[in-house]
Automatic annotation (TrEMBL):
Record-annotated membrane-spanning stretches: none
Species this chain originates from: marine sediment metagenome
Pfam families listed in its UniProt record: Glyco_hydro_18
InterPro entries for the chain: Chitinase_insertion_sf, GH, Glyco_hydro18_cat, Glycosyl_Hydrlase_18
Residue ranges occupied by any GH18 domain in the UniProt entry: 1-114
Entry-linked Gene3D superfamilies: 3.10.50.10, Glycosidases
Record GO biological process: carbohydrate metabolic process
Protein name in the entry: GH18 domain-containing protein
Length: 119
């Protein structure tokens, strides 16, 4: 009842240009940047095991792992099933894309029927 589940409105990119490479760093990408990449030739892939998507560039040397409407809805359902206290979002403004906050809207719809009770 005191636990919050963190939901990122950003993604992390990883170099996939070869096997057994030393991990150097991952880069931070706002959801809006990820959507722009998807619209410029990157491919969308859903990972059934982790229940989150990633996108990969055309030559499959880079991926960006992130949350989208589907994965966030699944996380919200998990929160309700496990009776977790709620969500924490980082970073709220990263969601804004094409005049909408689609990720925040998913969270709002999922929790609309369940109001937070204060003591």
């Amino acid at each position: 009842k005191k636990l919050l589940l963190g939901i990122p409105f950003f993604g992390k990119s990883f170099d996939c240009s070869g096997l057994y490479k030393k991990f150097e760093k991952s880069n931070y990408h706002a959801y809006s940047e990820i959507m722009n990449s998807l619209n410029s030739g990157w491919s969308y892939v859903w990972d059934d095991c982790s229940e989150v998507p990633y996108i990969q560039n055309q030559d499959k040397t880079e991926i960006i792992s992130f949350d989208d409407e589907r994965s966030i809805a699944l996380k919200c359902q998990y929160i309700k099933e496990k009776q977790v206290a709620g969500v924490i979002i980082w970073e709220l403004s990263e969601d804004y894309y094409e005049d909408a906050s689609v990720l925040l809207e998913v969270i709002g719809k999922e929790f609309k029927k369940k109001a937070i009770q204060r003591r």
